[in-house]
Amino acid sequence: MSIKNLIICIAVIAGIVTLTPFLKFQYQDIMIFLVINVLVVVSYRLVTLTGEWSLIHIVMMGVGAYASAMLSKFAGFPFWVSMPLAGLTAAGISAILCFPLFRMTQFYFLIGSFAAGEAIRLCWIYFINPFGGSSGINNIPVPILGDIDFYEPMPYLYLSLVVVTISLVILHRIEKSRVGLTLLAVHWKAPLAESVGVDTWKYRSLALIVGSFFVGIAGALKVHYLGVVTPHQFGIGIMVFVLIWVIVGGYATFIGPIIGVVVLTVFDQGLRASGVVDPAIQPAIYGAVLIASILFMPEGLEGLGKRFRSMAKSNNT
Amino acid sequence: MALLEVKNVTKQFGGLTALNDVSFSVEKGEIRGLIGPNGAGKSTMFKNIGGFYKPTKGEIIYDGVNIAGTHPCKVSGMGLVRTFQETTLFDELSVFENALVGCHMTAKTNLFSAILGLDGQQQIEAKEKTMGVLEFMGLADRKDQLASELPLGSQRALAMAVALNADPKVLLMDEPFAGMNPEETNHMMDLTLKLQDRGITIVLVEHDMKAVMGLCGYLTVLCFGSLLAEGTPDEIRNNDKVIQAYLGGGS
Q1: What's the predicted TM-score (pTM) here?
Q2: A127 to each of A57, A61, A99, A230, A313, how far by Cα in Å?
Q3: How far apart, in whole angstroms, are the C-alpha atoms of residue A302 and residue A309?
Q4: What interface predicted TM-score (ipTM) does this complex get?
Q5: Is the per-residue pLDDT at A156 higher than 70?
Q6: Which chain A residues have a beta carbon less than 8 Å from that of B84?
Q7: Chain B residue nearest residue A181, CA to CA
Q8: B166 in contact with A at a CB cutoff of 8 Å?
Q9: What is the CB neighbour count within 10 angstroms for residue A275?
């Protein structure tokens, strides 16, 4: 990472830390979910690096959420143990799913991943013991560290920031390594990658498993703050939001999906606070934003920035 | 012993017999041409050797092991690397990154060492190796360009660089001269001979007769899925059966 990018990252984190305490309580909540959603979209991008768009990502977040909730509530594990185990559970389940799912590619994979995700979600609803059915599991213990109480938003925001930042650093390192290059190679020309010895099945699986691990962690973070986990938090509707964030932000670069989730969350909250639009029709506005962004910014918001930079450059010379 | 031996290979697609009991063997260090009229089964044979198809019957012995039906990514790990008909590259990646993907098997990396940065020395070696291959192919000064921006001749050279970085013992080349102008063909022929100097055995499927006759020491001719003739370029040129097959003489 260049020095410039490092400084920007530190500035952003410092900005969040110093400004959030002055926000209204309700916005502090939203800030926490935003930080967690950043991890959701960035881990999703790792899955898409191999060119396979899955619809199971948000369900994997749920797998992590349920795992951490059950481990801490029923088995008495502290959050600091149940959170990494949540990631491992999501990774393990996705590893099993790789066997049927990666026999398919493209559209078939998309539908297959959706079906597998719904099957998992229906298990949560159907098996009331131990998953609690439609109402899920409540009274999930709050993380405790010494005498810090993570029930308050600000400590929880710091906790989320630390976990998400470490995760992003790891995801970034993977992407910039030769493993990341191989994932891209599998995406662009799978036969050529195979011709030099790349096991494309293995690398597609690797991307899904690692992506699931990190989204499982994000799931644990989310439900330990909410204190409740239900199957409806991880439905296809939420997955569509993830897709919109990633596509509107631009999935070609690491930073794109982050820009997408931040801009659209701010946009969403702004719309809500202004009271101009009935909240009931907000999804329609989201849809319009998606269509407009695909039509006018095929590379997403991130691509828009690049276009402005190159325009400025050609004006200068 | 021959390095690559095709033994009685038959390949059927439903009722269609694309290859019928074909046998030939390739010695270490040679450039072997695999020629024949359209539909002779050259590409099918090629895909059988490269692991993309599994022969219906017969064996493909490489380095003493039967590799018939082995997955392409395993075959290439054993040193049997193919290049593609037409230009097949990672268009969206740079020249350097294209070639770097090639050393996937020869300079291994894994997720955890990539995260923790434990594979630094290996990465340096992989990069040096890749630069060496690009210099060998005359592409070093274009290393930061996108693969899709290269002229056709350089793209073919880059495709060879990707394959070469996988340390092949046998290089299977599928029509490397197709669509090239005479100058590019000459350059490509030079490169192919340089590969032979490095001790790489080459099997060539090609339509360009000038290139085939100029490069190959020995030719295998297929026709309608069967072995028609084998011999040196001179013998093949004067072989009545071959002439008939190409010119379509009545029988």
Answers
A1: 0.88
A2: 21, 19, 25, 13, 60
A3: 11
A4: 0.84
A5: yes
A6: 191-192, 195
A7: B101
A8: yes
A9: 8
